[in-house]
Design a protein that fits this description.
Length: 197
């Protein structure tokens, strides 16, 4: 099966639903993580301290989606019915059967919960089983140990570090740690993630 371009889609699990991101999610998203410096520390820009500031980030992401750079999703916590973060498919290369899951954040009250595990389970499953991708990558700042640990817990393999890869919004340089999962690894990873839920 050859890979196909990801499109906005709704995927539902037991704990979360991922659905196409829209301005309608803004109030929930600001309540979940607006003004929290720790949530936004690694997101590549200043913390949004007002709904308008978060709205600008959301608008910019949706504009990039219209250019085909991202497929953004709101992450809905089913028990509350509220959007608690967002995530995207990005760096999409259908010819080479690969994409990245990234630009992900969740409100701090949902860290180390089923939210990230099931969101990744849904997005990875869709990428490998429906879109025909052969590789999904994830990456993070080398100083973001919490994110590296979370990615490793998913079963992704650490591939290496790109040194002085990207300038942070404060002007310092970040090294970027790359991880990946391949389609041949997915069945085992899927079982492990489902068991964690």
């Amino acid at each position: 099966m050859s890979a196909t371009t990801p499109l906005p889609v709704t995927l539902t699990g037991r704990h979360v639903r991922v659905e196409p991101l829209s301005p309608d999610h803004l109030d929930d998203l600001f309540a979940a993580g607006g003004g929290d410096d720790e949530v936004w520390r690694w997101q590549g820009g200043p913390t949004p301290h007002t709904p308008d500031e978060l709205g600008e980030k959301l608008t910019n992401l949706l504009a990039a989606a219209r250019r085909g750079e991202y497929v953004p999703f709101a992450v809905i916590h089913l028990a509350s019915g509220k959007a608690v973060g967002w995530t995207t498919y990005m760096d999409i290369d259908v010819a080479h059967e690969r994409l990245e899951i990234g630009s992900t954040w969740y409100g701090r009250s949902h860290w180390r919960s089923a939210v990230n595990t099931e969101t990744k389970l849904l997005l990875l499953g869709h990428a490998f089983e429906e879109l025909g991708m052969g590789r999904v990558q994830l990456k993070t700042d080398h100083l973001n140990v919490r994110s590296q640990d979370a990615i490793a817990r998913l079963g992704a393999r650490r591939e290496g570090v790109l040194r002085r890869h990207r300038r942070r919004h404060d002007g310092t340089w970040r090294d970027t740690v790359y991880f990946s999962l391949l389609v041949d690894e997915w069945p085992e990873v899927k079982v492990r993630l489902a068991a964690r839920l």
